Structures are given as C-alpha cells and as structure tokens.
Amino acid sequence: MAAKVLIYEDNPRLRESMVSMLDLSDEFAVLGAFPDCKKAVEQVKEHNPDLILMDIDMPDMNGIEAVKCIRKFNSEVQILMITIFDDNNHVFDAIYGGANGYLLKKYISSKLFQSMEECLQGGAPMSPSIARMVIGKLQHPQAPKTDYELTDRETETLRSLAQGNSYKMIASELGISIDTVRTHIKRIYEKLHVHSQTEAIVKAIRENIV
User: Fold this and answer.
1) Which candidate, 78, 62, 71, places its Cα nearest to that of 41?
2) Are 182 and 167 in contact (CB under 8 A)?
3) In angstroms, what CA-CA distances link 97 with 12, 13, 163, 170?
4) Are 112 and 179 contained in the same domain?
5) What single-letter DSSP state applies at residue 75?
6) Are residue 153 and residue 117 in the same domain, yes or no?
7) Percent of the chain whose predicted confidence (pLDDT) is above 90
8) 35-57: average pLDDT
9) Read out DSSP for 131-149?
10) Domain limits at 54?
11) Lower CB density within 10 Å: C or N end of the chain?
C-alpha cells in the first residue's frame, strides 16, 4: 500500500514539482499539498498521513511551530523538514520540535525519495551538512554528561542513530543484525525514558549522552 503524504510548501513551483515527482511513484500517494500550515492540525487529523513534507519559512505559522502543534496529538506520523535553512537554530529547533529528518531543498531532486523511505523505515535522514552539524554538536557538547548506564554497544548504536543512519546502516556499520539493532534501540528507549527515535536523539544532544 502506498504511503500517505501531505506537503506544506509556500513556493507554488516547488510544491507542484514535488507533487509531480511523487505522482510518478507507486510507493507514495499525495493526499494534499498546501501553501501554508494554518490548518495543519485539522488537515493531519482528517487525512492521517504516514509522512509529512514540511517547509520551515511559511506565512502566518512557520513549519517548526506546525510540527510542535502536530506532535501534541500525533507522535506517529513521520515529518521530514524541507528547507533552505542549514543554520544551527533552525536545525535544532526543528529536531527538538519533533521532526524526524531534515533535507535541504537543493537535494530534493536527488535525495527526496531516499529520505522519505528512510523516515518511514525508522531512520532520521539528514543532508550531509546537517549531519555534520549534528555530529559537531555531539563532539562539542555544552551540557554536563548524564550517565544512563548505556552499554558500549548501545552508546555506539545511539551515536549512529543521532548521525541520521537507518537501522540497516547501523547494522552494517556495527557488524550486527537489524534485529540486534532493534533490541539495542528498545533498551536505549527504556534507559533514556523516551518513546521515539527523535526523542532519543534530542536527549542525546541535549544531555551529552554520546
């Protein structure tokens, strides 16, 4: 069954281009494409999408605020930010707000489908420069480190997860099976007292866990 998608993008040419791209795929079904997110809460409740493509810079309400509103009632839908911004504030505000991935618009033609699939598979896709920024934040943390008694392998798994790697990529990097990755992540969630990948990544960044 095709994954249900909603698009929020105020640039009409880009919005139509994304709709056209997705219409060519049997894997995705666009249920709506909107120039703003003023009614995002109602639209998400009505359509119950699997994935949302969300621009940041939009009139009246920006995409980050929309994500925060959506997360108040829906923690399951995957949200991929599509934006021109690659500065610290926008990136981390979006992640803290509940976004699952962050794709710069210049990579849409080459990485959109891959990023959407990664989101739906439990990954956290990020454009290369964004991933480097996240890694830099992890390498130069400001907050004191908190001990959650993660094992070395759980820490490696969480670090790889925070770098935007999918379960499959983590398994390959660490030389373990995907089922073992899932087991590690389940234990990480329990120890960090979180319920999603985004929450785990945010906590790892905020509290210098990895």
Assistant:
1) 71
2) yes
3) 25, 27, 18, 24
4) no
5) S
6) no
7) 56
8) 95
9) HHHHHHHHHS--SPP----
10) 3-126
11) N
